[in-house]
Amino acid sequence: MSGSEIQKTRIINELRGFIRKLLQDPKILEQSLAIAREQLTEGNSSAAMARIANEISDTTSVHIPEDPAEHSEADKLFLELLREVVQEEQALY
Q1: pLDDT-based confidence at 92, cuts 50/70/90?
Q2: How many helices, marked H, and strands, marked E, lie in the chain?
Q3: What is the average pLDDT across 4-19?
Q4: Would the pTM count as exceeding 0.70?
Q5: Using one digit for the tens of pLDDT, what is the confidence trace for 36-89?
Q6: Burial of 73 (0-12, 13-18, 19+ CB in 10 A)
Q7: Taking the CA of residue 75 as centre, how many other CA atoms within 13 Å lie in the half-sphere pointing to its CB?
Q8: DSSP codes of every residue in 16-61
Q9: Half-sphere exposure (CA, 13 Å, Cβ side) for 27?
Q10: Which residues of 55-68 are buried (b: 16+ CB within 10 A; e: fewer)?
Q11: To the nearest whole number, what is the mean pLDDT of the chain?
């Protein structure tokens, strides 16, 4: 198995675990979106994204490392999707 195949497998396994956690506790999505909505009113900076990650870790069973350099691919994808959803909501209003 090549290095890229190993990395893809690791990312898929991490996403599976994350999706399982979301299915087991659907409130995580509601809480995460509420946090993102609140924090993104202050701008779309990397500091805002770090605050979102920290607050999600503090208030849900999802753990996102404090240091953005330590974010996994699944962490980055989740934060990016939160930002996109909030931006789309704001564009509708």
Answers
A1: confident
A2: 4, 0
A3: 90
A4: yes
A5: 999 998 777 888 899 999 999 999 999 999 888 999 888 999 999 999 999 999
A6: middle
A7: 18
A8: HHHHHHHHH-THHHHHHHHHHHHHHTT-S-HHHHHHHHHHHHHHSS
A9: 4
A10: bbeeebebebeeee
A11: 90
pLDDT at 93 over 80: no
Tokens of 56: 């999600």
Encoded tokens for 1: 């198995």
Name the packing angle between helices 73-92 and 27-40 (round to 10°): 70
The span from the CA of 22 to the CA of 38, in Å, is 21
Residue type, 62: V
18 vs 62: CA distance, rounded Å:
8
Which residue bears the tokens 């999505």? 29
